[in-house]
Each structure stands twice: as C-alpha cells, then as structure tokens.
Amino acid sequence: xxxxxxxxxxxxxxxxxxxxxxxxxxxxxxxxxxxxxxxxxxxxxxxxxxxxxxxxxxxxxxxxxxxxxxxxxxxxxxxxxxxxxxxxxxxxxxxxxxxxxxxxxxxxxxxxxxxxxxxxxxxxxxxxxxxxxxxxxxxxxxxxxxxxxxxxxxxxxxxxxxxxxxxxxxxxxxxxxxxxxxxxxxxxxxxxxxxxxxxxxxxxxxxxxxxxxxxxxxxxxxxxxxxxxxxxxxxxxxxxxxxxxxxxxxxxxxxxxxxxxxxxxxxxxxxxxxxxxxxxxxxxxxxxxxxxxxxxxxxxxxxxxxxxxxxxxxxxxxxxxxxxxxxxxxxxxxxxxxxxxxxxxxxxxxxxxxxxxxxxxxxxxxxxxxxxxxxxxxxxxxxxxxxxxxxxxxxxxxxxxxxxxxxxxxxx
Length: 412
Fold this sequence. Notes:
- The protein has helices at residues 15-30, 46-58, 69-77, 95-104, 119-131, 146-155, 171-177, 188-193, 200-203, 269-282, 342-354, 364-378, 386-400; strands at residues 5-11, 35-42, 64-66, 83-88, 108-111, 136-138, 160-168, 209-218, 228-229, 235-236, 245-253, 257-263, 288-294, 297-311, 315-318, 323-326, 332-333, 401-402.
- The chain is α/β, with parallel strands linked by helices.
- The strands form three sheets. Strands 7, 8, 11, 12, 13, 14, 15, 16, 17 and 18 form a ten-stranded mixed β-sheet that branches. The chain has a six-stranded parallel β-sheet with strand order 3-2-1-4-5-6, sandwiched between helices. The chain has a two-stranded antiparallel sheet with strand order 9-10.
- A hairpin with a 4-residue loop joins β15 (315-318) and β16.
- The protein is globular.
C-alpha cells in the first residue's frame, strides 16, 4: 500500500504557532499512517526561527527557515511528491491573503481563527473554494474539547431548547498594556472570542438568524485613549461597524435559541449570574480570577469558558477545567481522556484532510452560515454617542487595572 505524503509549511511562530510547531514536529517523527514532512517555517523574528530550528534538530529533523511569505509559497510550489498543507498561525489580518494564495495553488490550508476580518474577505474566500477543487479549514479548536465531544454524545437525537455560551477574558486589557507582543491578536470580542464557538454547529442543524445584539462596551484604542480600536487594531474616531467590541452578547433564533457571550474586558455580569446558578447546583465555579502583571503594571485577570444546554438533557460544560455536569442532579459526568491535546488533534485532522483520508465534519456550508452570523453580529452598530462609548470603555479598563505610581501611557 502506498503511504500518502503531506509536506507541511508553517507561517508564524507566535504563542499559539510555537505550540503548533511542536505538534507538527511530533507528527513528523511519530505519525505512521501518513508520511508527514515538516518542510519549513516562516516568522519575521529571526530569534524565533533559530529556536524553532534548534528544537527540530534536537528531535532529529532538519527544517528550512524562511524570512518571507513569498519564499514559503515559492518552496511549496516546487513540491512534486505529495500534497501541500499550509498551517497559518500568522497575524489575523493576513489570513485571508494567505488563504487566497493557497487556494490558487491547490494547497490545503489550515488557518488559525478568524479566517477573515471582514465579510468581503469571507465572500471572496468562499468564491475561490467554489472555483478551485481544494478546501481550507479553520482551527475551531474547541470542537476537539473532550467536554464538547461528550456533550455531543449525550445530546445525540435529543431535543435541545437552548445553548448559552460564554467565552470571556481580559485579553483586551493585556493587549492595551502590551500592544507589541499582542499585536497579532485582532477582531475584538466577536471575531476573536465568538469565533471559537463553531462547535454549536455540531449540536444544531439550523439557520443562524441573529435576533438581538448588545454591545455593552467597545474597545478603547489605548489606555485613556480618546478613540476606539478597530477590528484590525487601528484607531477609530467614529462608532462604525469596524469598531471592536469589548463585551458583546448576541442571541440567535431558530429551532434552538443560541446565546453567544464574549468579552475582552473581563467577566460580564450576565456571565457571573450564570456562574452562580451552576455553582449552586454543582459546587463548581467556572469563573477564574487572579492577578496578572505585564511590564510594570498589574490587572485583575478574569476568565470563563463554559456552556449551558437546556432541553431533554440539562448540561453544564466548563472548557477551562474540562468538566461536564448534569444540571438535573449536579453530578459530574466523566469525559474521555485523549493521548494528545486539542491542537495536535486539529493538526492531525488537517493532515488527514490534505491527504484525502478524511473530510472535516464541518462542511463549507456550515462554516459559511456560522461566519455569516458572526459578521452580522460584528457589524451591528447601535445608536450611541462615540464620546460616551469611549468614556465607558476607559472606565471599564480602569476598573480592572491595579493603580500604581507609574506614569500611564495614553495611546497604544
């Protein structure tokens, strides 16, 4: 039997990309069903490239390092023996451009979320998929979460009345305090946080009609800024559809009502209310609170990632702690333990898709419906005064930062 061959090229070695590189090295050295070859990696930081190269050498691999995206694609175009997979862990604003290049060259492409930061980019990606006999996918990594997988088994063929999802953290505060390190994180609460919730498409087979959107807080451009942040990270002096959300709640109507709740500016009051209810039943608090220091400043670091399902089965899943509970009894439900983590399984699935041995369970149509709903939410603009929005955003940030005697920088 001929073993399928997949040649992998990676773009980006940021915090997530570094972990992805380690998993690809593991696939190259240990995966036997497919011949996986990690050919090379690109990053604009030569130190990151050198560290990646040394890590690969330590594992017995020789990988090329590239100083430009053009060199990555030029090398990939020269591949004659096997399929090509591009793993894109680069900046969010470049994902769409890289997807276009891959589709034009008939390369399989795995992009970190979000695949695009505008509806126009998404439409163009969709058209290119239809024009070319090749696909791209997105690392909707929570679809590999053991809590999600077990909840899917339990609710199979069961009526679901509602799914309420919370993904809230202080990423926005960290980005304001450390804009250089976090420059690659874009999209605000909707396109960065809600984009993870594609797993809801595994639970329900329905159109996602946006019923309501409430953007409680927008993102300020910097500490004490007089402007708002755009989804691409720039400055906005007006409240438009390009303004990044700091805290956003949306309801999607259909056979099952879906609530999506996301935040870059700490845990919302709605999230705390849900957390208190489930804790009263399960004795488990899904909200994590601590203190984080960035440079010479500290802030209250809050995070929550959980869902609540109602219907024939009442379930609560905490994706931070990998815990699943029956809300009718309060008892914890055992979830399966995998040999590999979620990122490894996402990369493994993409390698198999590139080799033609597997089809991603989320169809392009389902991804399209999900991303269309996200853009409907992201582009929602409420009739608000921009100065009041900026004031509210700065007030929220100030509440989370621990005051010191150090001078505060006013712009990112």
